[in-house]
Amino acid sequence: MRAAALTAAALAGAACHPFPGRLAPEPAAGVVVLPPDYDPARAYPVVELLPPTGNTSGTLLQIYLSHVGLGRLYAEPPERQLAALRPYLFPDTGQAGRGVVLILSGGRGSADDYRTAEAWARTIARYERQVLMDLRTLAATRRVDTTRMVVAGFSLGGDLSWAIALRNPGTLRGAIVMASRASYRPASSDARALAERGSRFFLTMGGADDPTRRRLARAAAAELERLGIAYRFELIAGAGHEPAPPELFAQALDFVLGR
Questions:
Q1: pLDDT by residue (tens digit) across 131-166?
Q2: Which of 44, 45, 63, 127 is close enough to 148 for a disulfide, judged by CB 3.0 to 4.6 Å?
Q3: Which CATH number goes with the domain that contains 30?
Q4: Euclidean distance between CA atoms 173 and 58, whole angstroms
Q5: Total structural domains within the chain
Q6: Does 206 score more than 80 pLDDT?
Q7: Tens digit of each residue's pLDDT (9 = 90 or more) over 60-69
Q8: Rounded Cα gap, residues 127 and 172, in angstroms
Q9: Global pTM?
């Protein structure tokens, strides 16, 4: 099934690939955050944020609030945070100019999530189930553009976004992958589907981040190039292990949501 033909019914039938090993706990539902001028008659793109190590997915909003001098809004509801960030993340021009429906995934990232290869496989499976469940629920209750649903995150959240988007080309349009090793590689069938369905990936990495992480991120970009999958890779001069700044995140949204 091509991404353009996805419907709420198709989402209901989406299934992740199995991983070996014992089952991970069932995921918690994500929190849906509507744009400030939400119009129920409009089909919005969807972005689900995934958590970094030691924090929740909402941490990215707090980092961006601090970046633009609005740290006083840390304790405010996510709807108000998103409204305050709209001029920075969703400029009037571009694919996300009228906003997106945001999902803050449940859970808190932990170093235990990737302490061993088996633990990491279970973590991917757990968050993959969560993302697919969140998207099915949202598509059943709101009008959304099921051809433009993406995942995003930095650090652990970037690793998860990368893996889950690679594994689900029939559901996800792509991913924004920030400060991530991006070491997961797709199955051959998924690789073909990613290219055929026009998947898009936007990768960012701090120029002063860990050298191994930088090397692996470049290798991931080279793999996308080899597979013929649309991508952009941005090295942020002077930045350490951190997400892309708001203006670059806005560019990333424009790219991955583009047609």
A1: 999 999 999 999 999 999 999 999 999 999 999 999
A2: 45
A3: 3.40.50.1820
A4: 22
A5: 1
A6: yes
A7: 999 999 999 9
A8: 14
A9: 0.89
